[in-house]
Design brief:
A 7-stranded mixed sheet has the order 6-7-5-8-9-11-10, sandwiched between helices. A 4-stranded antiparallel sheet has the order 2-1-4-3, covered by helices on one side. It is built from 13 helices and 11 strands. The longest helix has about 70 residues. Helix content is about 60%, strand content about 15%. The relative contact order is 0.07.
Length: about 500
């Protein structure tokens, strides 16, 4: 018979822990090396990018800057690239969203003493999955080596025949030393049982006979004196009485335990009834919560001008009307491009939005519960912010008036609180949301939100700004923006 090595399972656990620690140290060291190499590459790319972007930054040529930025963001090490003018306004922003951003490198571009702008290069963070995929030969070899060490320990450390024989002799000697004592105990117990049986037999025989029988008296006199026989019979009777009393006590205790167990069984259904009531209450509460969190049917997108000096009110009609018409056309084309996306199937436009001095309102409606109307509203708000930034830049180049916008997205029931939020905490070129739980769930995985830093009211605590967009949705936004700008 083959015996295992002592504590072979414990040794396997120790080897497994050692392998996990070794793998973790390998991943950490490799990740650190990759980060250092990525930072060096990013600094070298930053110096080249500044040299290429000086001339477009001087004239603030967005097209040239976009072409240059697209070429650099094609690198796998680059997550996003942002180019700003000297006033810290964004000229070009390409790449992934801040959700996937890693380490940032920011540097100013200058021509002599004149600052032309700043460039922020965001590098991709190291992916542990890629590290494991590249280091799998080492990890596999280390695992096989630990497995071989465990097998070798099981072969070398198992007991030999001499050790097994010595262990068998020790066990046999121990049992032999204990055997006389066990035999004495068994003999004592058997003798006591024999005496007890003999006393019971004598008691039964004596109880069947009449003590006044002359034959019995003669037999007693033949074996000894009457007093001696009477003392023997009394001693035997007392011994039997003691045993009978002990048996009665044990039987009474068993009956008591049976009664207690029956009482517990009968009382158990009564104690379980509150649990059932509690479960019914929880299920009804979940049902009510599900009824309260129904899908969103209608969403309002409020677009207001960010005009702190109220210049729109003093704008001449011959300039205001074409400006409002241009904003309306771009908004309508943006809505058409949005509703044409397969992702937003089942969403329709309720009103016909039109810009005036107060801005515009877009109302979207969902035809089914699966339509992502909350996500569509936020994407539309972000799309128009991107379009309006181009409008503002072109109008400022022509020295004409144009204002930034601030956008608010909410469901129909919270339209009035949203108007107050836009006026109180709204920011230029930002989208603020006030959606119920179902709307927030639709944004997960696509949009990153940022809560207000110092909320003063309940609605400010429940609202949030759009902080970032993932790469797939950003590419979708850029495609819709380009389609609107290139349309008739």
């Amino acid at each position: 018979m083959t015996y295992l090595a002592p504590r072979q399972g414990l040794f396997a656990i120790i080897l497994l822990i050692s392998f996990c620690i070794q793998s973790l140290l390998l991943i950490v060291s490799t990740e650190r090396q990759l980060d250092e190499v990525r930072v060096q590459t990013g600094e070298r790319m930053m110096s080249q990018l500044i040299d290429e972007a000086k001339l477009p930054l001087l004239s603030q040529d967005r097209v040239s800057l976009s072409v240059i930025a697209a070429r650099y963001t094609a690198d796998d090490n680059v997550a996003s690239l942002t180019i700003r003018n000297p006033d810290d306004a964004v000229l070009v922003q390409t790449g992934a969203a801040p959700l996937q951003a890693g380490e940032q490198i920011r540097q100013e571009a200058s021509n002599g003493d004149k600052v032309l702008g700043s460039i922020t290069l965001t590098l991709n963070s190291s992916n542990k999955g890629e590290i494991i995929a590249t280091q799998w030969p080492f990890l596999l070899g280390s695992f096989i080596l630990n497995l071989l060490v465990w097998l070798l320990y099981g072969y070398v450390a198992r007991p030999t025949k001499a050790q097994l024989a010595a262990l068998s002799r020790d066990i046999q000697a121990h049992f032999l030393a204990q055997q006389p004592r066990n035999q004495r105990l068994r003999r004592d117990e058997s003798s006591k049982e024999a005496q007890f049986d003999q006393a019971n037999a004598e008691q039964n025989a004596n109880s069947d006979k009449d003590t006044s029988d002359p034959a019995l008296m003669a037999a007693l006199l033949g074996h000894g004196s009457l007093a001696t026989q009477t003392e023997k019979m009394q001693g035997t009777t007392e011994s039997v009485d003691r045993h009978q009393a002990l048996n009665q006590y044990l039987q009474s205790q068993q009956k008591t335990e049976q009664n207690v167990s029956q009482d517990k069984q009968t009382s158990q259904p009564k104690s379980s009834s509150p649990v059932l009531d509690n479960e019914a209450f929880l299920s009804s509460k979940q049902k009510n919560d599900g009824e309260l969190n129904k899908g969103i049917e209608t969403v309002c997108i409020h677009i207001h001008y960010s005009d702190p000096y109220n210049l729109i009110s003093v704008l001449a009609p011959e300039k205001a009307v074409p400006y409002f018409t241009l904003c309306t056309q771009l908004l309508q084309q943006g809505i058409d491009e949005l509703l044409a996306q397969p992702l937003f199937y089942g969403i329709s436009l309720v009103n016909k939005p039109k810009f005036d001095a107060q801005g515009a309102v877009v109302v979207l409606k969902a035809s089914n519960s699966h339509a992502k109307i909350g996500l569509a509203a936020v994407v539309l708000g972000k799309l128009y912010v991107m379009l309006n930034q181009i409008i503002v830049a072109k109008h400022h180049e022509l020295k004409q008036f144009a204002a930034d916008v601030k956008v608010g997205v909410s469901d129909e029931s919270q339209e009035k609180p949203m108007l107050q939020l836009i006026e109180n905490v709204g920011q230029a070129n930002e989208v603020i949301t006030l959606l119920p739980t179902e709307g927030i769930k639709q944004l997960s995985g696509h949009i990153q939100l940022r809560n207000l830093s110092n909320p003063m009211t309940v609605y400010e605590r429940e609202s949030a700004f759009v902080e970032g967009i993932n790469e797939a949705m950003l590419q979708r936004l850029v495609g819709m923006r380009d389609a609107v700008l290139l349309s008739n």
